[in-house]
Amino acid sequence: MRITTLEDITSVAGAFERAGINIELSHRKGTFTHPGRYVATFLNMILWSMALITYSIKNFNDVDKLVPTLLYEMQFLLTISKSLVFLARRKQFLRLNEALEKLAWRGNQSERELWNHQNRRVHPITRAYDISCRLTIGSSALLPLLKLLYYYIWYNEVVLTLPMPGTFPYDISVPFFYILSSFSSALVGFYCWNSATAVDGLFGWFLYNISAHLQIMRLKLEHLLQLQADGPQFQVDFAAFITYHKQIISLTLELDAVYAPIIFLEVISSGIPICLLAYQLTYLSDPSSLIFICALLSAIVLQLLLYCMGGEKIQSECEELCKNIYLLIPWYNLPPKHCRLYLMSLMRSQRVLALRGYFFTANHSLLVWVFRTAGSFTAMLNTLKDKQK
After folding, report:
1. What's 2's DSSP letter?
2. CB burial of residue 276 (10 Å; 0-12, 13-18, 19+)
3. Collapsed DSSP state (helix, strand, coil) of residue 32
């Protein structure tokens, strides 16, 4: 029976394909299929970041102009940082994926069915995140065109605006430079969309892989309980169960190690954009930007949910496995030669498998903390705005 692989998660696999990174389980995994395209879009992202920084310095005393600029700067900084971390460790990411999938291939038919059932759940989650990113990029690109048509039809004026504020060494009111800047901003959106969907979607895929393996362990435990404790097959299956548990712990710790900097960046960089978006909704100077603000807010919230609730899911699965090992195995009836194996599995199951971003543990409490921090910053900005009146 065929198992579900990363290539079957079309939204994530499509993002890697558009970015030009090979994810096949071969010696070429992690290599670039279109290195020139990736470098060009990355350099374009850097140029727009410089234009945003120049614009924010120029309008430092104007809160209404500074807030949208800071919003874009924070998102660009997060996207660039996560992309650099992924590029530096891309072979580790894909080797981890290969190890998780190969371990699933070794299972029997019922275990593969459980793997497929569990990992199909990640498809609608990554699809929803991909759609939210598309809506954000699409609304940002369409708003300037709609403004141009509106003012031209109703007021017979040509109003040229860009999706993002920025200071350039040329005049964007000149049609050539305006078209060039618009095309450049579209490339920025293309890069952000693919980078976010690939890196964050891959994390969601890993979470459901680990969760599937933990559920397969519970299935193995149920099969183990059907055997006679003093029989020879019990000893073999019990040893295989402990080996499987050791492999899952090792792969989970590897996932924690490779994603730790990304989780750290996600946590420290998400509260401020939520705060800035909430502030813009409070003082909505341009009603036409409401769709973009809501789309971007939904994408950021989905990002946080993916990391925080995903970490919570791993913790709950580990706790459930620990309870099953302690409560279901008849340890009081085990022969002395099996007690040592049982003690080993019990001690390992009590180890909390948490996903940490150095100083943060990805769980429900972290999600609440981020929203509370964003609310505090929003109140501070509102107070600053009132003082300027």
Report:
1. P
2. buried
3. strand
Q: pTM of the entire structure?
A: 0.87
Tokens describing residue 55: 């614009």
pLDDT tens sequence across 305-322: 888 888 888 888 887 777
What is the rounded CA–CA span in Å between residue 376 and residue 385? 14
Give the residue-averaged pLDDT of 295-313. Answer: 87
Length of the chain: 389
DSSP SS3 for 121: coil
**Rg (the chain; Cα; Å):** 25
Output the six-digit token pair for 63: 């809160």
Residues 6+ apart with CB under 8 A from 28: 22
Among 303, 216, 210, smallest CA distance to 258 is for: 210
CA max distance for the chain: 91
Identity of the residue numbered 357: G
Number of other CB atoms surrounding residue 124 within 10 Å: 10
Q: Which helix (H) or strand (E) holds 146?
A: helix 122-155
